Every structure is written in C-alpha cells, then in structure tokens.
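Forum: Protein Structure Q&A
Topic: Joint prediction for protein chains with partners

I've read a bunch of threads here and the consensus seems to be that you should model interacting components together rather than docking separate models afterwards. I'd like to see that in practice. Below is the full input, 68 residues plus whatever partners are listed. Could one of the regulars post the assembled result?
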Amino acid sequence: MAARVAVDRALCLGSGMCLVYAPGTFEHDDQAKAVVREPAGDPADVVETAVEACPTGALSLLPEQDGA
Ligand code: SF4
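Posted by a regular:
Agreed with the consensus. Here's the joint model:
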C-alpha cells in the first residue's frame, strides 16, 4: 500500500534528496520546491526512506485514507 506524503513548501530547500530516493513520487516545481507528482508512484517503504532523508524535515507521512 502506498503511503501518502505531504511537502511543507516553507521548509523545502530544494535539495532534491526526495527525488533521488523516490523519483516516482516527487518532482521539482519551477521554484525547485518538491511536489508530490504521484502519491502511489513508489512503494511505501521507499517513500518513508525519502521522508527520512529530507535534510529539513519538510516531508511528512499522512495516514492512509480509505475510500474516496
Ligand atoms: S528532500 Fe526535502 S528539502 Fe530536499 S527537495 Fe525534497 S522536500 Fe525539499
């Protein structure tokens, strides 16, 4: 099951670590801030590794939501 993840744009410094670890999930926008391109783009453990790798703590895992 894929994790859902949020990016705090105020904290993101555009290091790109999350893109390295989970390239199927994250991309940079035109301000070099990380955005979630595809919430299910990588396995949950891969996304968790990316969250842990973020040097500024800009990423946070969200609870999985059923339905909708
Ligand atoms: S690893 Fe963190 S600081 Fe770097 S681009 Fe991703 S969210 Fe931004």
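The radius of gyration is 11 Å.
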